[in-house]
Amino acid sequence: MTEKITKLDELKKLADGSDHGDKSRFFFYEAFINTEIYLLLEKEIESGVACPKLIETSEDKYALVFDTISRLVDFTGNSSPYLALTGRMVLPMLKEQKLGLGLNLNLAVPSEILLSSSDIDWLQNIVDQAPERLDDKITAFSKPSIPFVVRDSLHKKLRYLSHFVAEAWTAEAIYLNGHKSQVIIFVDVNPMMHGAVAKAVNEMLSFISYDENLIDVVFLKVDNPYLKKIRKVGTSVNFERVSSEKITPSGMDEKLKKSLKPPRLR
Q1: What DSSP element (H or E) covers 71?
Q2: Which of 9, 86, 179, 239 has the smallest number of Cβ neighbours within 10 A?
Q3: pLDDT digits (tens, 9 = 90+) for 224-259
Q4: Do the Cβ atoms of 252 and 203 come closer than 8 Å?
Q5: In angstroms, rounded to a whole number, what is the distance separating the alpha carbons of residues 68 and 149?
């Protein structure tokens, strides 16, 4: 048995012992999709095709993954072929083959779980969904009222955006139709990155279960006349600078977030 406690162990224990089950499970799944995991294979990769080692029950078939190589070895008892990839990368493979997932099975560690094929579908739907594009015109900006937990998550969980975001602000926007919404404004971001940045914000919101209101994403040029006002009334978002991060942004829409709850961690 592996004695070292991993991040997934800690978050699974938190989810098991928390009164805020949905939020804690979201934290666990968020970490899972961004963690490098090791998919146990039936045999070495041939012609670019990976064949996962499976276990089968009367209800489902499960691929076997581990969050450390030592745990994979503890499970197999010998040297075995595996594929190293992030949880985000393994999800579409499992969904395509209608497979569930077994994480750290039979190792007596906190993160030992089974996710059914329907659980995999749920999680992949979060990763797949793109944010909706809004065409309504903004007429004014005012002071934001975004909860602290959301602002804190913007600072911490989107820190990898520091590579291509020089300036960002939160504010409240008033649209031409009278609608008001909390917004995050990104300044002078390459247009090719707009979709990825918007997805990153949507994904962050989905994994903290922020249901009160959506946060719209706005992109402005540095010479936009609204920016002077935003800098006066808005709150600056200072992303923590990091050297590198293996994260690919994605998101989910509001209908999915309201209709589905995170799967129980079994």
Answers
A1: helix 69-76
A2: 179
A3: 999 999 999 999 987 755 433 332 333 333 433 333
A4: yes
A5: 30
pLDDT digits (tens, 9 = 90+) for 150-197: 888 787 767 767 767 778 999 999 998 888 889 999 998 888 778 778
Instruction: For residue 260, give every residue at least 6 positions away whose Cβ sits within 8 Å of its Cβ, in sequence order, or none.
Output: 122, 125
Same fold, 7-128 and 138-250: no
User: E-strand spans in 78-153?
Assistant: 82-86, 100-103, 113-115, 138-142
What b/e string do you get for 142-153 counting C-beta neighbours within 10 Å, with b at 16 or more?
eebebeeebeeb
Residues 103 and 230 sit within 8 Å (Cβ to Cβ) = no
What whole-number distance in Å separates Cα of residue 78 and Cα of residue 208? 39
Whether residue 42 contacts residue 52, with contact meaning beta carbons closer than 8 Å, is answered with yes
Quick: pLDDT tens for 59-77: 899 999 999 999 999 999 9
The number of beta carbons lying within 10 Å of the beta carbon of residue 66 is 26
Domain 7-128 has CATH 3.40.50.720: no
Give the start-to-end residue ranges of the domains of the chain: 7-128, 138-250
The answer to whether residue 33 scores a pLDDT higher than 60 is: yes
Q: What's the one-letter identity of residue 209?
A: S
Kindly indicate the confidence band of residue 135, based on its pLDDT and cuts at 50, 70 and 90: low
